């Protein structure tokens, strides 16, 4: 479940993409993490899927479950993601000339761990930020760094509410999807991407970071949590998909995007207290809306 996975300090740091993403224990690559025989057997033997009835319930209650997540954790769960400008040069474009204002959307913004470090760093940026948890959006609006001249937070289900109701069509330079697509049912990921496509400028870019195939979190799920291939439910009802780079590229290509970068980020997270060293796998990618 989200708490068990990410409130573990080591895992939380990794899930938040860590404070030093280019640390010596991190490397990027195009191949999947190799599994040990034991890990392979664990995944092979986990064949029983959650019943259709329960699967439908998780889908119907997805918004409620994320809202309850923020009710329990308020703003204390995810760490501020201060690494985004280091990892994604596109976010720094607005620093070069005053006229280069960057207009972006943080899709699935949670309580703003990604946007507030950006607003603090860059004056020349306007951020639309949406989430389908009303509570998360409220936390964003209450943050002392929130100011309507530089940011507009709104509630929206990326898979069904047309973003153009708030964000002008073809107006964005950048959209970020940071640990969000994994929370959406695979059958609906395409809808979310189509929605984002419409509000990006031609040449606009989606910056993506999320759980990669064979991440430690995937191996930790107990039997009875599997919803489908590479898709699991946590104890709190929130769900997580683990992306292979081929799967992700195919999703974006179907949505009309072109791949710029698509690679695994492999790192080991050390939990000193428990003496554990766990392999984390993320997928970090950039996709462009063709001009
Ligand atoms: C792991 S959090 C990531 C939050 C944020 N991007 C960050 O970097 O801290 C995933 C977020 O996705 C949101 N989410 C899940 N499904 C969504 C959907 N269909 N539409 C909009 N937001 C969604 C959840 O409410 C949650 O806040």
Automatic annotation (TrEMBL):
Signal peptide location: none
Domain Methyltransferase type: 105-206
Compartments, record wording: Cytoplasm; Nucleus
EC id: 2.1.1.-
Listed SUPFAM superfamilies: S-adenosyl-L-methionine-dependent methyltransferases
A single MF term (Gene Ontology): tRNA (cytidine-3-)-methyltransferase activity
Lineage top rank: taxon: Eukaryota
Entry's transmembrane regions: none
GO biological process, one term: tRNA methylation
A single cellular component GO annotation: cytoplasm
Ranges of Low complexity composition bias in the record: 9-24
Keywords: Cytoplasm, Methyltransferase, Nucleus, S-adenosyl-L-methionine, Transferase, tRNA processing
A Pfam family reported for this protein in Swiss-Prot or TrEMBL: Methyltransf_12
Stored Gene3D superfamilies: Vaccinia Virus protein VP39
Functional description taken from the UniProt entry: S-adenosyl-L-methionine-dependent methyltransferase that mediates N(3)-methylcytidine modification of residue 32 of the tRNA anticodon loop of tRNA(Ser), including tRNA(Ser)(UGA) and tRNA(Ser)(GCU). Interaction with SARS1/SerRS is required for N(3)-methylcytidine methylation.
Protein name (record): tRNA N(3)-cytidine methyltransferase
Species: Pygocentrus nattereri
Gene name of the encoded protein: METTL6
């Amino acid at each position: 479940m989200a708490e068990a996975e990410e409130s573990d300090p080591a895992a939380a740091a990794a899930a938040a993409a860590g404070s030093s993403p280019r640390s010596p224990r991190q490397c990027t690559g195009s191949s999947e993490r190799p599994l040990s025989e034991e890990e392979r057997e664990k995944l092979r033997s986990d064949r029983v899927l959650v019943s259709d009835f329960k699967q439908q319930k998780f889908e119907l209650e997805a918004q409620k479950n994320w809202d309850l997540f923020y009710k329990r954790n308020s703003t204390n769960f995810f760490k501020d993601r201060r690494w985004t400008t280091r990892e994604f040069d596109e976010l720094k474009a607005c620093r070069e000339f005053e006229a280069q204002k960057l207009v972006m959307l943080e899709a699935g913004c949670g309580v703003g761990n990604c946007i507030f470090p950006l607003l603090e760093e860059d004056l020349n940026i306007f951020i639309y930020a949406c989430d389908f948890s009303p509570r998360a959006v409220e936390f964003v609006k209450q943050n002392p760094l929130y100011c309507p001249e530089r940011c507009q937070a709104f509630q929206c289900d990326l898979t069904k509410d047309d973003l153009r109701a708030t964000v002008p069509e073809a107006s964005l330079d950048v959209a970020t999807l940071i640990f969000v697509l994994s929370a959406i049912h695979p059958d609906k990921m395409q809808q979310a991407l189509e929605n984002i496509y419409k509000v990006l400028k031609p040449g606009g870019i989606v910056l993506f970071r999320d759980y990669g195939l064979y991440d430690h979190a995937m191996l930790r799920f107990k039997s009875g949590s599997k919803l489908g291939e590479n898709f699991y439910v946590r104890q709190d009802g929130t769900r997580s998909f683990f992306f292979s780079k081929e799967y992700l590229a195919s999703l974006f290509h179907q949505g009309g995007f072109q791949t710029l970068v698509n690679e695994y980020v492999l790192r080991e997270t050390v939990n000193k207290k428990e003496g554990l060293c766990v392999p984390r796998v993320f997928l970090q990618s950039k996709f462009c809306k063709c001009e």
